[in-house]
Design brief:
By secondary structure, the protein is α+β, with helices and mostly antiparallel strands. Helices cover 25% and strands 34% of the residues. It has 14 helices and 33 strands. It has an 8-stranded antiparallel sheet with strand order 11-10-16-7-8-15-12-13. A 6-stranded mixed sheet has the order 2-3-1-4-5-6, with helices on both faces. Helix 12 runs antiparallel to helix 14. It is globular. It starts with 5 loop residues before the first strand and ends with a helix. The structure holds guanosine-5'-diphosphate. Guanosine-5'-diphosphate (GDP) binds next to helix 1. Belongs to the TRAFAC class translation factor GTPase superfamily. Classic translation factor GTPase family. LepA subfamily. Its EC number is 3.6.5.n1. This is Elongation factor 4. It catalyses: GTP + H2O = GDP + phosphate + H(+). GO terms for molecular function: GTP binding; GTPase activity; ribosome binding; translation elongation factor activity.
Length: 593
Amino acid sequence: MDLDRLRNISIIAHIDHGKTTLSDRVLELSGTVDARDMRAQYLDSMDLERERGITIKLQSVRLDWRDHVINLIDTPGHVDFGYEVSRSLAACEGVVLLVDAAQGIEAQTLANCYLALENDLEIVACMNKLDLPAADPDRCAEEIESVLGIPAEEVLRISAKTGDGVPELLDAVVDRIPAPVGAADDTLRALIFDSHFDQYRGVVSSVRVMDGTLRSGQKLRFLQAGASHQAEEIGIRSPGPIAVDTLGPGETGYLIAGIKDVGEARSGETVTDAARPAEEALEGYRDPKPMVFCGMYPVDGDQFPDLREALERLRLNDSSFTYEPESSGALGFGFRCGFLGLLHMEIVRERLEREFDLNLIATAPSVAYRVHTKGGEVVEIDNPSEMPDGAEVEAIEEPFLNVTLLTPSDYTGTLMDLCQTRRGEMDKLEYLSPERVELRYKIPLAEVVTDFFDQLKSRTQGYASLDYEPAGDDVSDLVKVDVLLNSQPVDAFSMIVHRTKADDYGRRMCEKLKELIPRQLFDVPIQAAMGGRIIARQTVKAKRKDVLAKCYGGDISRKRKLLDRQKEGKKKMKSIGRVEVPQEAFVSALKLD
Ligand code: GDP
């Protein structure tokens, strides 16, 4: 097709600023989807995504506008999926920046705009929700000008809901965003920017042809995976799939090549012609690196094989999480899983419970530590219970993040306080306008994976936003705290914490467990220990739990019911030494608070 008539774009927007509504409106106005058949929110297809209002799986869709073809490439809307965003931006020549005119620009949106600028993409900025009385487009346009240098008068004003200004936006896309360049007879290089597993077709990848031509039936070489596959089908989405014979330079579409595992067709992969392979892969490929880890255990030990199968199946669809079997004295057999971030962890867990009908216990999230031993070895551990004995440890490194917060200026104080209690070091404080402040901190990842995000939202009534990027590992004064029940350590409660926070963690765990562990026939000491030294202690006093005490003289069937229930309860007990602990106690104690 004629390259001059082609535009490849993504919409960059903060969650809730109206990306989905705008995509729907654009599909409708361009006649891509008949208004009558229009399924609301066409681009978001996974239920979970829709419920949480986030996009994880990327799709692209092709639409016609004024004699031009626009490929709208979706990007995931959460900070855990930053790498995926960078790959979909690599498939575009320009972006539409969409900002809610009542809210202003948010941290992650800003980070994505910087990413677009670094990649020399053209930005068409627009403000949304102009139909709302709360919209303050003049102030919002000034903010966009001051942080991104886009002149305020160039910022478009639209309502994705009513459609006002949307045709002008599409005109601006055609006029301002450059067409792709490339030659149809060059050596083929196509970028994969998303893959998902389809039960019937196997892996379906979204591709952008950068150079040359991708042909149906062609023998292909996947440069990063080092594998060869045949292109069984290639096509475009408009919005349903339509098979085509070729995809030329600058075009985007889908590729099906008989692949069974998304790990073999990852985002960032370069596809080339097996007969005439490109020498160099496209820039920017990265192996996914899990940042947050936790143990996942079935509540019912019999479900262990089901959990294994569910993980195998889910991984076909998401190659960025990892899992390996582990066992815990307290929780039995389960898996140690690694995720890109906290939300990713929640999504995987929720999908396991929902799609595979499993009931799971997850241990507290942990990060990967690099432990330098006195013997000069460096070991990487992602489970606190693997920590070498304190006496052998020379130093421990932990991962850090560069965190950017954008907030209404009223909340600056409370956010600085939050970051400081999380061991953050300030890099920057800047007023974007009299009402809005940008804060930058370097904070240990471990301090962010506990409830940082929730705190951020509750302290600012949801007005502050967050973006982060990895900032490498650094040495910190970390110690392992163990929790002992009746002198037996319980592995699931071991935690690596900063020395200044060890006492607090120990005390809180002991108090919590005292509430959760039922009385036994003997006194049960609960202790927290750090390097062999006890730092906190509680005792569960002995008492026989006599379930019949309340109903002497009562009728026999009631007594039997109570005894049955007690027996049922016993099945759910785990023994730690001589102490019987109900499964719920683990679940509650492991909950973050
Ligand atoms: P996304 O998270 O960026 O995909 O945002 P959505 O498209 O789901 O929109 C978030 C909310 O804002 C929804 O309740 C939309 O109905 C609403 N919304 C989106 N655009 C407009 C608009 O132009 N005007 C008004 N009043 N509401 C809008």
